[in-house]
Amino acid sequence: xxxxxxxxxxxxxxxxxxxxxxxxxxxxxxxxxxxxxxxxxxxxxxxxxxxxxxxxxxxxxxxxxxxxxxxxxxxxxxxxxxxxxxxxxxxxxxxxxxxxxxxxxxxxxxxxxxxxxxxxxxxxxxxxxxxxxxxxxxxxxxxxxxxxxxxxxxxxxxxxxxxxxxxxxxxxxxxxxxxxxxxxxxxxxxxxxxxxxxxxxxxxxxxxxxxxxxxxxxxxxxxxxxxxxxxxxxxxxxxxxxxxxxxxxxxxxxxxxxxxxxxxxxxxxx
Length: 270
Fold this sequence. Notes:
The chain is an all-beta fold. Helix content is 0%, strand content 37%. It is rod-shaped. The termini are far apart.
């Protein structure tokens, strides 16, 4: 087996400069070049190859995000839509019960939408009461086996009381209508609808309510309007009321007290 000489008395020629150096002073660069000690150039740190570091993304004992949206299937009972105007039946509901639509104030217009969606077996009936004008939509779509009926209670009831107040005629006793603000409030009486003005409260005693086409009625030189109007009982007594079914093309009306001037107000008939 051949051996190399120690080279203690030898020289070498630099690959870079071509100069002669003592053999024992030889330096070998990372490129393999043989150079003198004063020419040695170490490898720059930014020169590869680089060590590959792990960059894991998975977590040990991880759990999924709990911010989920869940669908809960229930059977709806009866609804009072005084505060609920739109009822949407979710997917795969078995049935929806009766819906009773009642105005939050007497004579208030309302709109009720009842929809049976995919997989709903039945949608119940809708009854609208004490509502001046109502738009009720019952719709059964794909997979809904039955849609209930829609009915309207034809009489809209206003409760009347008498108390001191001020209106356009001045101060004194005035009519007040429950659910409407102020003395002698302006009413909206829709054509074809029936309205009952309940005068059972004792404050109505001696103050029969009537209608006229003239402001302040007979006190303003007009006459009593009687088309579709009926009255029952004595004001201030239980069961007393005035009822009107508004005729088609009815004129603007005014309600008034037959005994006292300036107690009433306007009743528009759109």
